[in-house]
Amino acid sequence: MATRGTPVRLLTLRQLLAPARRESYAVPHFNVCNLETVQAVLAVAEEMGSPVILGIHPLEVGYAGASTMVEVVRSVGEGRRLDVAVHLDHGTTKEDIMTCIRGGFTSVMYDGSALVLDENLAVTKWVVEAAHAAGLSVEGEIGAIGQTGEFGEAVANPQLADVGSAVALAGTGIDCLALAYGSAHGFYTAEPSLDFDLLAAVADRVDIPIVLHGGTGIPEDQIRKSIDLGVAKINFSAVLRRAFISAMREHLELQPDELSIMAVLGAGSEKMKAPLRDCIALCRSAGRVS
Questions:
Q1: Which structural domains are found in the chain, ordered by start?
Q2: How far is C-alpha 256 from the geometric centre of its chain's CA atoms?
């Protein structure tokens, strides 16, 4: 058992995902943006013995600061038995990447899905060289994960990847591959239909773990099948933010004169814990921290 003064183990995706792929489970990725969201994720990760990836979107980096978030993770995780990656989620510029490398992240995602393939490959290769030189791992994206407008962006359907492009992106040296095979960020308005033939074909051709984005709301049987076919990282965000925000609203409705910021945010943090437990159970990652 770790004791006070023992630093949290900050690991790369390469270190976390290799055993996950080998042993047929997935490491859950949870988006965080402040002290309270980090506290909730790390408390449940320790409780369930699950490795976790703390994903921080560029908007969240801009809000909280890259090095600030890393120090929050170090402080909250001190003395706890945890395996954690601090990961840039959907970086789209070289500036995003360098900010997080300099800020102490252990992993970065470069999302070049809006570019033509040759440009995506070229920039992703640059990111791999920069990140690997600093000891970080890299996630790349092929195809385009769907959007439901959760951050105010235009709603878009997923653009499925093709096998050849996936193999080409894997050839840039990335450590894991975010594959668009039918999922979308946010809340689904109908049951998602994932293309498991595409997933199986890509998994058969690439020698790196595959990532599923848009895990919120995907039925359990599709999550399980994705893991069985080679997915080793699953991203969850919307379900956590909904729980957090709804708990704060409920708290303020019951106590409209509340002046304790800690009480309001603490209510949100506590409400996150149930969906966190559910996501870890879906990923089969409980008890995987040595």
A1: 9-237+275-283 (3.20.20.70)
A2: 34
Catalytic residue numbers read 89
As given in the structure block, the two tokens for residue 242 are 């909904």
3-state class of 24 per DSSP?
A: coil
Q: Which residue shows structure tokens 């893991």?
A: 227
Under a CB-based contact definition with an 8 Å cutoff, are residues 157 and 192 in contact?
no
Q: Tens of pLDDT along 123-141? A: 999 999 999 999 999 999 9
Task: List pLDDT tens digits, range 145-158.
Answer: 665 554 444 334 66
| Helices within 134-230 (DSSP H only) | 163-170, 196-205, 220-228
Strand partners, 55: 31, 87
The end-to-end CA distance of the chain, in Å, is: 10
Tokens of 53: 């990836």
Q: What is the distance between the alpha carbons of residues 35 and 72, in angstroms, rounded to a whole number?
A: 7
